[in-house]
Amino acid sequence: MILHGVKNVTRNITRSISIILILSVSIGLALIMLLSYRAINEKISNIKSSIGNTITINPAGSQGFEGGGNPITETQINEIKNLPNIVQITETLLATITPGSENNLTSPIKAGKLGKRFASFQNQSFYNNNPNFSPSVPIVVTGISNTSIITGEGISLTSGNLFNPSSNDNVAIIGKNLASNNNLTTGDTFTLYNTKITVSGVINMGTRFANDGMYMPILTLQNLSGQQNDISAATITVNSITNVNSVISQINSKLGSNNVDITSSQTTVSNAIAPLESIKNISLYSLIGSLIAGSVIILLIMIMTVRERKKEIGVLKAIGASNFLITIEFVSESLTLTIIGAILGIFIGILLANPVLSTLVNTSASTPIQSSFQGTGVSTRGINPGGPLIPSGGGGVFNIGRRASRFISSITGAGEQKILSTFKDIHAIINLNILLYGILSALIITMLGSVIPVLLISKVSPAEIIRGE
Questions:
Q1: Pick from 293, 401, 457, 467: most CB atoms within 10 A?
Q2: What is the per-residue pLDDT across 218-250, written as a single tens digit (0 to 9) for each?
Q3: Could you tell me if 276 and 42 are in contact, meaning their C-beta atoms sit under 8 angstroms apart?
Q4: Is residue 258 exposed (0-12), middle (13-18) or buried (19+ Cβ within 10 Å)?
Q5: Burial of 187 (0-12, 13-18, 19+ CB in 10 A)
Q6: pTM: predicted TM-score of the whole model, two decimal places
Q7: Would you say 105 and 195 are in contact if contact means Cβ atoms under 8 Å apart?
């Protein structure tokens, strides 16, 4: 009966070819949607665990226009280190040094027209009397507890090695602009806070602003600058973006919302990945629709076939064939058609999976992702430590908080670029599992499409067929 069912495929070649082509398109689309769903779902999971899952803690009041507030302390950070869902805490301490004061460095940053205008605004009488004076721009020194801040895409050590961030060694990695301006190379020494500091490496951070600064172990900077136990900001990495709100609540409960300012880019990143969530849902619904469409096709064909072969079924029953054996014949026929369609559908899926996925992502995700960042000024890993205005040489004034915010943002990179580059890297993974998925689709379609025809077969009465003859 199985062989007879397979041979029945050749009874009507034209109809069989049409059925196979329709099924191949249905199964191919199902496979494309399945691969798209898996690729997008995996990418969303990766994004949630690596982007937008950071929380920045700043001293309360430090993010205002003038800055202010008291620094965060190591004691406060220790209180939250063991909270659930926290993967890592990176501490930073920022200090600005005026060139020539307790150091032998010169700043590579030129005040320019904008810098002079801001400085003259702060000390109008001095600049009215000294119109040719150019203020000295402070150098930003960053103490870090984790060198991951100065590693990653677009960042490279041009010479030397990273230091141990948990040490209190008198070492520093300096930006290439600061190194060039002061003729410093790896192994050289310079004076900072009246202490000899060794250059452990020269780094290219990828931006002019970041390359004008230097980086030291946080313990070293705390000791040299007299800021023992102080922290300018802490960046907390959470295991998933979905846990950010709960971690923020726990931090506020531990530290008190009046003592720290907490920011995150969860909302911005969630809005940015929303288009991918929509594509994932579309893929899932299309997958289900494709399987249902294939099943309906088999169902209609088998119903029509049963009706056409009603006399044949009656004769088989009259000579002793059971409903089960006759069902096997028809299921074998439908399974043969579906497997041939599945083989063609697999090739269609292999050829079109990535082009279709790319089209879905490019048309549905790119514009919303970019627009979700417009006007926000949000960096997914940016740190915004505030601070008071401090005097620079000759009465010029610069805001630590604003400079530090720009400085740390330039170190960590913008969230928009991270997300956009991540979305460009979505690919459907095609492997041997595709064959299994194709066969599984064929079995599902055959089983769903054969239920009603089997019921029709069981109702065919040999006596009625014979009387009809």
A1: 401
A2: 999 999 998 888 988 888 888 887 888 889 899
A3: no
A4: exposed
A5: exposed
A6: 0.56
A7: no
